[in-house]
Amino acid sequence: xxxxxxxxxxxxxxxxxxLERAQRELLDFEGTGMSxxxxxxxxxxxxxxxxxxxxxxxELLSVPESxxxxxxxxxxxxxxxxxxxxxxxxxxxxxxxxxGGWSEKAYEEAGRVGTxxxxxxxxxxxxxxxxxxxxxxxxxPAAAYVHMTSxxxxxxxxxxxxxxxxxxxxxxxxxxxxxxxxxxxxKFALVYAGxxxxxxxxxxxxxxxxxxxxxxxxxxxxxIFRYATHAANNSLYNxxxxxxxxxxxxxxSYTKEIxxxxxxxxQNRKKGxxxxxxxxxxxxxxRAPVERESRSFxxxxxxxxxxxxxxxxxxxxxxxxxxxxxxxxxxxxIRASLYNxxxxxxxxxxxxxxxxxxxxA
Length: 361
Ligand code: PMP
Known about the structure:
This protein has helices spanning about 15-25, 45-60, 75-85, 100-110, 210-215, 225-230, 240-255, 260-280, 305-320, 345-360; strands spanning about 5, 65-70, 95-100, 115-120, 125, 125-130, 145-150, 150, 155-160, 170-175, 190-195, 205-210, 300, 320-325, 335. By secondary structure, it is of the alpha/beta class. The chain has two domains: about 15-255, Aspartate Aminotransferase, domain 2 (3-Layer(aba) Sandwich), CATH 3.40.640; about 260-360, Aspartate Aminotransferase, domain 1 (Alpha-Beta Complex). Helix 4 (about 100-110) links the parallel strand 3 and strand 4. The protein is globular.
């Protein structure tokens, strides 16, 4: 079997050993005579998997005891609403730092729930090519929270430092760079991330939330939308997406086996450096629209001399089993997503193809 070189922006590739384990265990999970998908979410077999997945997130990221690790549904898009429903009370305002299409969506959705402010935006003609500087942030010292998007999936920018937001709770949408390396969880009040880029299939959003923040959250909202509900029920208030969480368990237990997030970061940096070097080495043909200090290691965005050449590039690459290279429909261009499970060999293959294509074009 020849596996594709998968550069999809999400859902994205998963590590082969995690998939093979699922294949081995699919019909008979640990001698129970049935698949994990067929088990009750309240039974012992599934509960062990569920708790192992949560424990692995905790261990790999050194999540402090003072934080909940939650597995929720509805994707990061639901978090755009759930966050202000819980943490933006009447009479308060929340600050949003706009760095791309997803942070705009988070801001707009929060505006339907309460009062929001733009603390900074780096949009020029609706395009974002950089992360703001600290001195560009105009923060409300009384903000209920400050929201940032740590990696901008569409535009290919990423924060490589953390903004100083004073005593306001810092909240991050980490959907497209969650667990690409270790980070200091204690710097954030809450982090949320869809699983489908770095750590599993779609269907789960991981939330890390400071316990005291959740305890003080609004209680006058529907039960299912309260973080406190899910925290009190170990993310089993309603029927959990058991197969997705099982696969997260497989991915993270494999991640631990190969050396944890330090090894993942080493691989991710090597992949990103190789691809950006290929772009920079041929400035007459390839152009990276993103400012250098804001470049993302997860989504590498670049342009070719014409849209016609970009179309040909994507089509010819697909013939060689390199998939997912077309930029987002709103931005165009080329985007190669180099999430945790993309092997170095796929990036090498892409870089060789780029060199050859530039020569022929
Ligand atoms: N935030 C970011 C940074 C994303 O990349 C995405 C998905 N690409 C979302 C939010 C939305 O996630 P979902 O589709 O899971 O709701």
